[in-house]
Amino acid sequence: MPTLPIQNHAKWLFILALILTGIGVVFVLSASAPYAAKEEMRHFANALNLQDANIPTEAPSVHGTKFFLRQLFWALVSFFLLWIVSFTDYSVHARMSKVYLLVTIVLLICVFVPYIGLERNGAHRWVRLGPFQIQPSELAKVALILHCARQFQIRSFVVRRFRAIPDLVPHVVLLSVLIGLIVIEPDLGTCVVLGTIAVAMWAIGGVPLRYLASMFLIGLIGVVAAIVFEPYRVKRVLAFMDPEKDPLGAGYQLLNSLIAVGTGGLTGRGLGQGPAKYLFLSECHTDFIFSIICEETGFIGATIVILLFLCFVIIGLDVAKRVNDPTAKLIAAGISLMIGVQAFGSMAVALGLVPTKGLALPLISYGGSSLLANMLAIGILINIAKNVAVKSKPHVGLKADWQ
Predict the structure, then answer these.
(1) Other CB atoms closer than 10 Å to residue 79's CB: what's the count?
(2) Spatial distance between the Cα atoms of 322 and 319, rounded to a whole number of angstroms
(3) Can you count the helices (H) and strands (E) in the chain?
(4) Which among 31, 158, 176, 292 could bridge 326 via Cys, Cβ 3.0 to 4.6 Å?
């Protein structure tokens, strides 16, 4: 069967990113409108309590579009960033990977610095930069991918000179630093994503299976420990096993997500017509936006979203498989896996297939940092697809064909 030229992959990656972001903007408007309207009225009520003579006595016109307008703004900025990056040679970003990592680590530390870091619901995940707020953990994913790809080439993993401890330790130390800073925010979901991406890239880079198995076992022990030593995580796991035992507590979010998904039926209730977002399902414009998609567009709409992500990952991995340059191969594979792991992880949470954990649906969930980081990564992937020659023969030592 003939295959498409790799240059066409770039076009499809851009089209898929555009479609998914467009879906995200629409559903952020639908999912966030009631919550945004409630916030606007609360701010107005708080202002009235100040008894300021300049405050109007009539309630303002409430439209509930605050989050939608922000997401639209970040979508436009992100596509501009994608366009710029897609014309910048990927090797520039690979060479800058240490700088990206240093900036990311500094920002991860800054989330705990008073007046710079921002706390929400007991979590320190954001940094104030003027009028904007950045979530450094989103940038950490891209920085880790670039650094791993660059260092694998420098340390000659691709020519089968893997020396076990000397070559793997720097990567393990770096991953431990990033995960350590993120897990105390706390954000266990991002830690799992980072670990999954790292192990997958090590596997593609040629790290022997016995070392990968060891890293997986250590990571699994770490995740179990992080759950056991945090009571609220234990409650989430127990609620996942039987959410009806605590329907108004730990099982509340999962039950309401499943109700939203189930009531969508085949074709859904209609765009904007789902009742779950009216304060029954919290965080529905961020971590549980897929539940709203299921409720309002039904099985058909949810399947389309799943297929769009699946197509994106398949095309991205095909780019990784067909390029000659080892660094480009690892970057393309890492970015494709980053999008795929986050997407299917977020959808699995909404469907009750894994324990409840806040995990944004890439390109769709509300959030400027996530959108910017994902678009930056996709821009690099598109550049690889456009400018790297299709491989003529496998590279020695790199698992190019993943056989």
Answers:
(1) 18
(2) 5
(3) 13, 3
(4) 158
Q: Is 73 exposed, middle or buried (0-12, 13-18, 19+ CB in 10 A)?
A: exposed
The residue whose two tokens read 């529905």 is: 284
Q: Which residues of the chain have pLDDT under 70?
A: 1-7, 36-64, 153-167, 279, 388-403
Average per-residue pLDDT for the chain: 81
**Angle value at C-alpha 85, between 142 and 197, nearest 5 degrees:** 20
Q: Where are the domains of the chain?
A: 7-40+66-387
Q: How far, in Å, CA of 248 to CA of 240, rounded?
A: 14
Q: Are 162 and 206 a contacting pair, CB within 8 Å? A: yes
- Sequence letter at residue 48: L
Tokens 């910017």 correspond to 372
Q: For 62-166, where are the E strands, in sequence order? A: 117-120, 123-129, 132-134
Check if the beta carbon of residue 343 is closer than 8 Å to that of residue 309. Answer: yes
Closest alpha carbon to 363 in 334, 332, 338: 338
Q: Please state whether the peptide bond connecting residue 186 to the residue before it is cis, i.e. omega within 30 degrees of 0.
A: yes
Backbone angles phi, psi at 134, to 5 degrees: -115, 140
Token output for 49: 């309590």
Burial class (CB in 10 A: 0-12, 13-18, 19+), 36: buried
Determine the Cα–Cα distance for residues 385 and 220; give it in Å rounded to an integer.
Answer: 34
How is residue 112 written in tokens? 């705990």
Q: Which amino acid is at 7?
A: Q
Q: Which amino acid is at 342?
A: Q
Instruction: Tell me the residue length of the chain.
Output: 403
pLDDT of residue 397: 42
Helix segments in 286-351, DSSP class H: 289-322, 326-350
Query: 291, 347 in Cβ contact below 8 A?
Result: no
Both tokens of 350, joined, read 């909404």
Q: Which of 273, 188, 175 is nearest to 234 (CA)?
A: 188
Comparing C-alpha atoms, which of 362, 359, 369, 357 is closest to residue 340?
A: 362
Q: Give SS3 for 129.
A: strand
What's the pLDDT at 206?
77
Number of other residues whose CB lies within 10 A of the CB of residue 243: 22
**Residues 342, 360: contact at Cβ < 8 Å?**
yes
User: Helix, strand, or coil here: 321?
Assistant: helix
Give the pair of three-digit tokens for residue 281. 């399902």
Instruction: In whole angstroms, give the CA distance from residue 288 to residue 351.
Output: 10
